Automatic annotation (TrEMBL):
Source organism per UniProt: Hyphodiscus hymeniophilus
GO terms classed as biological process: translation
Residue intervals of the Large ribosomal subunit protein uL5 N-terminal domain: 196-249
Large ribosomal subunit protein uL5 C-terminal domain segment(s): 253-352
Protein's UniProt name: Large ribosomal subunit protein uL5m
GO CC terms, sorted: ribonucleoprotein complex; ribosome
Record keywords, A-Z: Ribonucleoprotein, Ribosomal protein
GO molecular function per UniProt: structural constituent of ribosome
Highest taxon, organism lineage: Eukaryota
Bias kind Polar residues: ranges: 22-44
Region annotation (Disordered) ranges: 22-51, 75-121, 150-181
Length: 358
């Protein structure tokens, strides 16, 4: 280090020791607004200085201890016109559900204080965005039925048969079901409006594994494949009765089921429509007569179709080729008829062929 550098360092230290700290703080806080505020009334101040703020964040708080001592939270609460809502931490949701008559009822799952509360969804899937922006308005516009005010609706006959009253035991007895095999009361189709636009509620994937009757390894392979495809752990079903001609024994595991809801169901339908169905060779589409009459559409994939799923295709060597099963897919919608359900699935991109049964 040279002598010139030493002399400059000693000079700076001497200047710091001589200058008081108060002068430093005043110099740091000097700016145009303070000079304007300190100007005497007789002295003329320019308009530019008058527009500047006279208070700066560099000023220290005058006396914070007095403000803290003067603060009274109880007095502030008593002076509030309306009390704040109770905190969600004041109530602890019961751990077990003890029935509808128990005095302690758990809050709904949408309540943040519920044990079943799941935050979200924070984003919509591609199929959900397409449905909200395009498909739902188009369905409501295509199926709109204008009913002028004052229109008298035609009276419909009773769907259930009443008793003729020939016996005293008929009094108070509920009405009988419709005539025909099974006596099943079918769901009536309701007109579509902005409150009941059809949408997908859940998707059920079911696979009957015939090879599991002789070797349980077939059931394990099918379970691994369905869990990879759907993202849901499959439920194993056991035979309720013994059938000697099919080689089925009671309580023997023979089938698997996966149920998807929410974004998982929409992702699976999107995957089937855009990735799997276009790659199936010589596939005419979904049969137009499918459906249960209540808005649920079913179709299936054989072994060749199951291999085309990306989760299976990327790890094809992990599955024994002869053990990969096919499966059925049931799309449950909020529609009240198969016609409305087919309109929804057609708009999503599912191809139908043959005669469409209303």
């Amino acid at each position: 280090m040279s002598l010139r550098e030493l002399s400059s360092i000693f000079y700076r230290l001497s200047r710091r020791a001589v200058r008081p700290s108060a002068t430093i703080s005043q110099n740091c806080r000097r700016y145009a607004s303070t000079e304007a505020s300190r100007a005497s009334p007789t002295q003329e101040v320019s308009e530019d200085l008058q527009e500047l703020e006279s208070v700066s964040s560099y000023y220290p708080i005058s006396n914070p201890n007095e403000d803290i001592k003067a603060y009274d939270p109880v007095k502030r609460v008593q002076g509030r016109r309306r009390q704040l809502p109770p905190s969600r931490y004041q109530f602890r949701s019961p751990r077990y559900y003890r029935g509808p008559l128990h005095p302690h009822q758990p809050p709904p799952p949408s309540d943040p204080s519920s044990r079943l509360f799941v935050p979200g969804p924070f984003s919509h899937t591609r199929l959900e965005q397409t449905y909200q922006s395009t498909i739902a308005p188009d369905l409501m516009a295509m199926t709109y039925v204008h009913t002028p005010p004052g229109t008298v609706k035609a009276e419909k006959g009773d769907r259930l048969r009443s008793w003729d009253g020939s016996s005293p035991y008929h009094k108070g007895r509920p009405k009988r079901g419709p005539r025909g095999p099974g006596e099943v009361l079918r769901v009536m189709e309701k007109d579509i409006n902005f409150r009941n636009i059809p949408k997908i509620e859940s998707v059920v994937v079911h696979s009957m594994v015939k090879g599991a009757l002789d070797d349980s390894a077939h059931l394990h392979v099918a379970g691994i494949m369905l869990q990879a495809v759907t993202g849901v752990r499959p439920v194993v079903h056991r035979a309720k009765h013994s059938e000697a001609q099919f080689g089925i024994r009671i309580s023997q595991p023979c089938s698997l089921t996966c149920t998807m809801r929410g974004n998982q169901a929409l992702d699976f339908v999107d995957k089937c429509i855009n990735l799997v169905m276009p790659r199936i060779k010589d596939w005419p589409g979904v049969k137009g007569t499918t459906g249960d009459g209540a808005g649920n559409i079913s179709f299936g994939f054989n072994r060749e179709g199951a291999i085309l799923f990306p989760e299976v295709e990327v790890n094809y060597d992990m599955y024994p080729p002869k053990m990969i099963p096919g499966f059925h897919v049931t799309i449950r919608t909020s529609a009240t008829s198969d016609r409305h359900a087919r309109l929804l699935l057609t708009a999503l991109g599912v191809p139908f062929y043959g005669k469409l049964v209303d």
